[in-house]
Design a protein that fits this description.
This protein is of the alpha+beta class. Among the domains are: 55-165, Pseudouridine synthase I, catalytic domain, N-terminal subdomain (Alpha-Beta Plaits), CATH 3.30.70; 171-178 and 317-435 and 449-496, Pseudouridine synthase I, catalytic domain, C-terminal subdomain (Alpha-Beta Plaits, 2-Layer Sandwich). The chain is 25% helix and 18% strand. It is built from 13 helices and 15 strands. It has helices spanning 80-90, 135-141, 187-192, 204-208, 298-308, 310-314, 321-332, 388-400, 407-412, 437-442, 456-477, 480-485, 498-519; strands at residues 55-63, 108-109, 118-128, 147-154, 167-175, 223-226, 245-247, 261-262, 265-268, 275-278, 282-283, 336-339, 355-369, 372-381, 429-435. The strands form 3 sheets. Strands 1, 2, 3, 4, 5, 12, 13, 14 and 15 form a 9-stranded mixed β-sheet that branches. Strands 7-6-11-8 form a 4-stranded antiparallel β-sheet. It has a two-stranded antiparallel sheet with strand order 9-10. Strand 9 and strand 10 form a beta hairpin. The longest helix is centred in the C-terminal third of the chain and has 22 residues, at 456-477. It is elongated. The termini are far apart.
């Protein structure tokens, strides 16, 4: 037998070595503020730099609107939004390449407040870098004290602070004296009272601003220069206004001397039932000999002014049940879906945007700020247009002061009617809260509630310290509402009597029809 040759074993080519993939890193939780790169071997040359992710959040904050041209960013103007965006960049929430480009981080605001209007519960949303911890503190450190960040909430990726906001609640603080028809009357009423036994005392504020009534106290020049502090003002019904240099009649006198000073003068503010006890320096200069029987003693002049109005002072205006019922009845006329083209600017009557839905409007409570009693008017609506709330308040106050009939509101809400209505000062208005009812109901099981509940205490402190104090002090120092009240007349707003004229025409037509039938 032949021997079989030994079989040769074939050698397989060398197989390339397969590297095992690195284990996948776990996702960071929404509350984690550090990355897994911290667990680096000590043998590594250098640890990797921490990397953070952008998070979609809703930021809750408040601000006092004084000195700002509104909320929305406007080139060349000082706005709340511009300061907030810059603070977000400085806090590291926005990268350098996105600075000033809000669309890149999905910026949205819940409400757009006007110039000088404040907010307690404003909300904005966007995608920001909120890590490392201390995001809120970093923001506040880069903002002025009149802007305060309360906190933030994680929201869904599709959340938009403007589109997801169901309702907005605004509050307007109107002084009680503004609802008194006899307080701070218009110039025509003051002129008409001359020579009668029911003369109105000329308002000090109007004299200061140049709205003078000629010959109110006779042919004379009576000047009162005062240096008043808030402690010197003791209001009887909350109607007290700090007035620096004021005239009672005539032009300012630069040559008043210390010999003309009076230690204390008591002056009533135009039939309002409120007495201003003015301490400090008061200078009076009287010129001419015809004083309408008042004599040459300035103290006698002030005394006569005070005595003549003592009876009116005792019956000062109060926001009682009758006044409250009437004011709320007026405000309720705005509730519902209406065409508010007469209560804004730049929006035509046929524009669908003019139709707005007001959910509620009431004035049930009063608050005392800086010694002045204010009525707290709360209005809730889906959304509001430029100046809409201020014009709604302006017309309501005009009706309370008997400058216009209640039926004028229904007429102003008609699409085919154009009426010029008064605009109340901006200082008393602030955004109270933005509500997200539908969103919270839909995402209640997976996300935090988007509301101000967690920040109620700090928000109340900010409101009292910055917003309410500003409203009260502004009325004391500048008399913003008191001066505005003098503009509520038919000369400035002839449309305020349009309803009366229509009623008169209807009455005349009815009367003519009856006479014609009688003759027939």
């Amino acid at each position: 037998m032949e021997e079989e040759p030994p079989t040769q074993t074939r050698r397989s080519p060398p197989q390339p070595s397969i590297e095992e993939p690195e284990p996948k890193k776990l996702k960071m939780s929404s509350t984690t503020t550090t990355s897994d790169d911290e667990d680096v071997n000590s043998n590594s040359a250098a640890p990797k730099k921490q990397r953070y992710k952008r998070r979609k959040i809703a930021i809750f904050f408040a601000y006092c609107g004084v000195g700002y041209q509104g909320m929305q960013k406007n080139p060349g103007a000082k706005t709340i939004e511009a300061d907030l965006e810059e603070a977000l960049y400085l806090a590291g929430a926005v990268p350098e390449q996105d600075r000033g480009l809000s669309k890149r981080y999905d910026w949205a605001r819940s409400a757009r407040t006007d110039k000088g209007v404040s907010a307690v519960g404003q909300v904005v949303s966007g995608r920001f870098y909120i890590d490392p911890p201390g995001f809120v503190d970093r923001l506040n450190s880069n903002l002025s004290p009149q802007i305060r960040i309360f906190g933030y909430k994680r929201v869904t990726a599709s959340f938009n602070a403007k589109k997801f906001c169901d309702r907005r609640r605004y509050v307007y603080l109107i002084p009680v004296f503004a609802l008194d028809p006899n307080c701070h009357r218009d110039r025509e009423s003051v002129k008409a009272s001359l020579g009668s036994g029911n003369e109105l005392v000329k308002c000090l504020e109007c004299s200061e601003r140049g709205r003078k009534v000629e010959g109110l106290m006779g042919k004379r020049n009576f000047e009162v220069k005062t240096a008043i502090s808030e402690s010197d003002i003791s209001p009887n019904s909350g109607n007290a206004i700090e007035v620096p240099d004021v005239q009672a009649n005539g032009a300012l006198e630069d040559n008043a001397t210390a010999s003309d000073s009076i230690k204390e003068t008591s002056v009533l503010v135009e039939n309002s039932g409120t007495e201003l006890n003015v301490g400090g320096e008061a200078t009076a200069k009287i010129e001419g000999s015809e004083m309408s029987g008042l004599g040459n003693d300035s103290e006698n002049v002030a005394s006569k002014e005070s005595v003549n109005r003592n009876e009116k002072s005792s019956g000062s205006f109060k926001y009682g049940e009758e006044e409250k019922a009437r004011f709320n009845r007026i405000l309720k006329k705005y509730v519902g879906t209406h065409n508010f083209h007469n209560f804004t600017t730049r929006t035509k009557a046929e524009d669908p945007a003019a139709r707005r839905f007001i959910i509620s409007f009431d004035a049930a409570t009063t608050v005392v700020v800086e010694g002045i009693e204010f009525v707290k008017c709360e209005v809730v609506g889906q959304s509001f247009m430029l100046h809409q709330i201020r014009k709604m308040m302006g017309l309501a106050v005009a009706i309370m002061r008997n400058c216009a009939p209640e039926s004028l509101i229904e007429k102003a809400l008609q699409q085919d009617v154009n009426i010029n209505v008064p605009t109340a000062p901006e200082v008393g208005l602030y955004l109270d809260e933005c509500l997200f009812t539908s969103y919270n109901q839909k995402w209640k099981d997976s996300h935090e509630e988007v509301s101000m509940k967690a920040y109620e205490e700090v928000a109340e402190d900010f409101k009292m310290k910055h917003i309410y104090s500003h409203i009260g002090s502004t009325e004391h120092k500048e008399g913003a509402v008191a001066l505005w009240l003098h503009s509520l007349n038919h000369r400035n707003y002839p449309d305020l009597r349009v309803a009366d004229e229509a009623a008169d025409d209807n009455a005349k037509n009815t009367s003519v029809g009856i006479d014609t039938q009688a003759e027939t």
